[in-house]
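Action item from last meeting closed. Structure (306 res):
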């Protein structure tokens, strides 16, 4: 029986207001446009894994205003049985001001992403078995409980510890089987600084039984577990929008690993997928299908950060 992935993750609506300048205290301004986009690391990562061909289920909560997010997941091949509508909360959202220079400032409202109950978690987890994978980020409540209960069931735990804030201190990170993270998140977790190689070493030293997959811009990505290291260079593409590139990488690399691909192949496919994503606008809409990743042609960047 093939292994399944359960993403217990965030679902957001991003409201982007185009403004000349950011609003200041006591001021009222008019925006020239308002666009609504799907968002949330959980949603993006599930869509990426679904498009990569994984058997993936998403568990999360939305308000009545977020039904289109559930539909979007379903179209990407994600099992949406446990994307449920909260009676008490609206969908998590971001209010984003975007000025003429392309800079932004953001107010986040967690909404239904922080309305999980232990009963909901238990009900979802009982559908999964030993050897299945749990994928989590740090954008929902009950993260310590979700990780502990999945580990207790014999599931393997993959974590993208983003945002890397103080809420992570409450999670037993020793239960994580695979970290997928960037350099800033590795610094926050290990308390160390340095090159991507040094941060990968620091993660492997702190969590000797876990695998670590580290991404770092033009350096590319690397895998570490114990003394094993595998390096993958980034691909050179014209960058249009980096939003969601990390989520694309996360969904793709986990989908390939769970499907039984070797580390080098999994890193390469995830790097190709992320390269395609940054060459397109948007987060979820920029995530490529598996056949696009297979056809992708580009030369790797020869990084100066060796």
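Sequence:
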């Amino acid at each position: 029986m093939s292994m399944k992935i359960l993403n217990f993750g965030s679902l957001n609506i991003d409201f982007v207001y185009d403004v000349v300048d950011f609003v200041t205290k006591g001021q009222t301004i008019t925006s020239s446009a308002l666009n609504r986009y799907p968002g949330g690391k959980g949603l993006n990562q599930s869509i990426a894994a679904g498009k990569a061909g994984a058997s993936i289920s998403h568990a999360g909560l939305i308000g009545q205003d977020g039904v289109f997010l559930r539909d979007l997941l379903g179209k990407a091949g994600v099992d949406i049985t446990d994307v449920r509508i909260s009676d008490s909360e609206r969908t998590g959202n971001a209010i984003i001001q975007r000025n003429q220079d392309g800079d932004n400032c953001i107010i986040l409202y967690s909404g239904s992403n922080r309305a999980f109950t232990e009963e909901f978690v238990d009900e979802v987890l009982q559908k999964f078995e030993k050897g299945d994978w749990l994928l989590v980020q740090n954008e929902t409540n009950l993260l310590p409980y979700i990780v502990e209960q999945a580990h207790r069931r014999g599931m393997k735990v993959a974590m993208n510890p983003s945002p890397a804030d103080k809420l992570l201190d409450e999670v037993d990170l020793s239960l994580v089987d695979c970290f997928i993270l960037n350099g800033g998140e590795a610094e926050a977790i290990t308390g160390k600084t340095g090159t991507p190689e040094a941060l990968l070493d620091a993660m492997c030293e702190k969590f000797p039984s876990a695998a670590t997959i580290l991404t770092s811009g033009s350096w590319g990505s690397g895998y570490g577990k114990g003394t094993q290291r595998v390096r993958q260079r980034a691909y050179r593409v014209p960058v249009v929008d980096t939003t969601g590139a990390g989520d694309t990488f996360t969904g793709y690399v986990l989908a390939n690993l769970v499907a039984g691909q070797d580390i080098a192949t999994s890193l390469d496919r995830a790097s190709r997928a992320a390269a395609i994503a940054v060459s397109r606008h948007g987060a979820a809409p920029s995530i490529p299908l598996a056949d696009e990743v297979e056809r992708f042609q580009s030369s790797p960047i020869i990084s100066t950060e060796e």
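Note appended to the action item: DSSP finds nine helices and 13 strands in the chain.
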